[in-house]
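Design request, tokens follow.
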């Protein structure tokens, strides 16, 4: 989808009759389409092809010959058995960039396991450090391991395209959820590898910075961060707690971390005395970071989010107007935008086979009759 926003022509190959599993991931649905599917499939053309039939395999081979990139997320080895693995397609299309996205990579003891976000987040440590300090592990509210893997794949594909400009040759890219998740442990991984410190759950708090967490207000929660002594002093002034600045327990961040419980208790008491809206008015212009913890209704009515213009509408052939969260990145010259609605299953089969691959109307109809395409 990210590549599609940037202008790439994306052909999504799906199973006839069923399609992408996320088409059925609901409720909620907008008409016949799951909101989940609608969220990640804009700017794509859908071609329904049965890969297990020789004629379907040939369709994909022909698409590979005229495409820059193939992205697949089958269990490793599945496409090799169908004659559509990297070695097979590299012979047919040596300039093709072949990006495999899997749960655990092409080799190793877990390589044949299906890959799901929550499993990789469990294996890779994220769930173990997410949740209340004394509570059970929690998954993150959205599939961050999936999303990060997709972003890694996007960057790798762009790098491979640049490399191909230099060498003229394609290559294989392997991305997997577990490696992504391990790499995303960043500072916690370094703390363990270099300091021998095992990570733990901190709720909204930070392991190495205090205060850096959410505090309850009279009617909600607000997040506060003070990453320097100057920011901490400014926080104390606005809370009318100047004595904390000179308290020897809190004069430096290491001291504040050491005496976390006492400091957080004092700050919690202070923040509980006003509503979130009142605190936001008081904190306006302060040099330290702060933010309300918003519901989605508050997110999409927030004046800055509205100003950013990230919500776009696009016409869907089956359900009418669909609202989309648009691209996060803006360019001064290049395009990066929602160009087309998520497709119906097989919506573009006829178009792609006739216009891109040169099939006749009769050939497409015969493939449809045989159940090869839909």
């Amino acid at each position: 989808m990210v590549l599609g926003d940037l202008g790439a022509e994306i052909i999504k190959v799906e199973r006839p009759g069923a399609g992408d599993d996320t088409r059925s991931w609901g409720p909620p649905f907008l008409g016949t389409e799951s909101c989940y599917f609608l969220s990640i499939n804009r700017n794509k053309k859908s071609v329904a092809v049965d890969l297990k039939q020789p004629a379907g395999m040939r369709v994909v081979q022909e698409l590979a010959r005229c495409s820059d990139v193939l992205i697949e997320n089958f269990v490793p080895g599945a496409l090799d058995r169908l004659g559509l693995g990297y070695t097979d397609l590299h012979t047919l299309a040596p300039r093709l960039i072949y990006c495999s996205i899997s749960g655990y990579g092409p080799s190793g003891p877990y390589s044949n396991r299906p890959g799901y976000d929550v499993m990789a987040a469990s294996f890779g440590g994220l769930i173990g450090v997410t949740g209340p300090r004394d509570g059970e592990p929690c998954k993150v509210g959205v599939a961050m391991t999936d999303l990060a893997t997709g972003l890694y794949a996007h960057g790798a594909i762009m790098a491979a395209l640049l490399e191909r400009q230099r060498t003229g040759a394609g290559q294989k890219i392997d991305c997997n959820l577990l490696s992504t998740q391990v790499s995303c442990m960043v500072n916690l991984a370094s703390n363990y590898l270099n300091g021998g410190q095992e990570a733990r759950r901190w709720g909204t708090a930070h392991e190495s910075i205090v205060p850096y967490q959410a505090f309850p207000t009279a009617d909600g929660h607000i997040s506060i961060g003070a990453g320097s002594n100057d920011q901490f002093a400014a926080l104390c002034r606005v809370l009318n707690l100047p004595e904390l600045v000179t308290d020897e327990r809190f004069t430096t961040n290491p001291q504040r971390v050491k005496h976390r419980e006492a400091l957080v208790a004092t700050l919690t008491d202070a923040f509980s005395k006003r509503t979130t809206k009142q605190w936001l008015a008081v904190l306006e212009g302060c040099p330290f970071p702060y933010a309300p913890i918003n519901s989605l209704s508050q997110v999409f009515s927030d004046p800055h989010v509205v100003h950013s213009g990230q919500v776009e509408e696009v016409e869907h052939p089956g359900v009418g107007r669909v609202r989309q969260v648009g691209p996060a990145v803006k360019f001064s010259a290049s395009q990066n935008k929602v160009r087309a609605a998520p497709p119906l299953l097989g919506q573009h089969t006829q178009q792609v086979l006739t216009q891109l691959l040169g099939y006749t109307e009769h050939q497409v109809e015969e493939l449809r009759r045989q159940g090869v395409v839909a």
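Comment from the thread starter after seeing the answer: thanks! DSSP finds 18 helices and twelve strands in the chain.
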